[in-house]
Amino acid sequence: MSTQSTTRPADASGVFALGGDLPVNRLGYGAMQLTGPGVWGEPRDPDEAVRVLRRAVELGVTFIDTADAYGPCVNEQLIRKALHPYADDLVIATKGGAARPGPDDWRSNGRPEFLRERLELSLRHLGLERIDLYQLHRIDPAVPTAEQFGALAQLQQEGKIRHLGLSEVTVEQLKEARTHVDIVSVQNLFNLANRSAEDVLDYAESENIAFIPWFPIATGELARPGGPLDAASRVHGASPAQLALAWLLRRSPVMLPIPGTSRTTHLEENVDAALVRLDDEAFETLTTAG
């Protein structure tokens, strides 16, 4: 493993072109934690939240993931406050299709009128005329699939969405969705300790679809004192979280990790993971341990 120094460490993570025409640095930032407890309400420290977003861009992050359900709406408005007008190379991805009755309460809603309403609100809150990547938060089992994707396709045809993505789907659901619309990204739970979506990742890689792992730095028992990540951390001079992110970046060229945090110092540590280069032995050791 080797490291290098740069003022924009995220540049070292490499580039992936969403939909073949929208390049982003592969190590992004997930903004969900910039809201109150239960992903509800204002952040505990609004000034630090603004600093985190601005620092992420300074560090070379060109892909920020949010959702209208984070807050609700708080997250998107915070991003606008901190970063608008946006840098030319900055992609703001957001999600719709989840209703939020209260803290920690998430309910899928794929009704076409709801999707349109939330998309229009996202445009207003982010200060955009078009969302570069709009992701269906969850496929709603109570609404016919064709209706959900038909609504998103209509919004795309109206020029309000550039590219479409999905969140928490199976390979079969992803294939079904692609019969209705072009899907350029999928966002599933995936990390060194939990690879239950490995089949979705493999399919995404085969189709050059971006795979955005949420909860990317969860390490579980691997980081326990004396555990594989703890040992590797001492050997290589990188934190367990940095090694977990470096492993993800090495795992697949379509991988776009979006580690989130509400603290600037933690953000800087996460983004520095892009500078970590795992050699074959270190990568295999972590793969086997996971």
Descriptive account of the structure:
The chain is an alpha/beta fold and 290 residues long. The chain contains ten helices and eleven strands. The protein is globular.
Q: Strands, helices and their partners?
A:
Elements: E1 15-18, E2 22-25, E3 29-30, H1 46-58, E4 63-65, H2 74-83, E5 91-96, E6 98-99, E7 107-108, H3 112-126, E8 131-136, H4 145-157, E9 161-167, H5 171-178, E10 183-189, H6 198-206, E11 210-214, H7 228-236, H8 240-251, H9 264-271, H10 280-289
Parallel strand pairs: 3-4, 4-5, 5-8, 8-9, 9-10, 10-11
Antiparallel strand pairs: 1-2, 6-7
Keywords:
single chain; 290 residues; alpha/beta; 7-stranded parallel beta sheet; two-stranded antiparallel ribbon; 37% helix
Question: Termini, distance in Å?
Answer: 18 Å
Structural class: alpha/beta
What's the overall geometry? globular
Q: Strand sequence of the main sheet, in spatial order?
A: 3-4-5-8-9-10-11
Tally the beta strands. Answer: 11
> How helical, in percent, are the residues?
25-40%
Q: Can you summarize this structure?
A:
The protein is an alpha/beta fold.
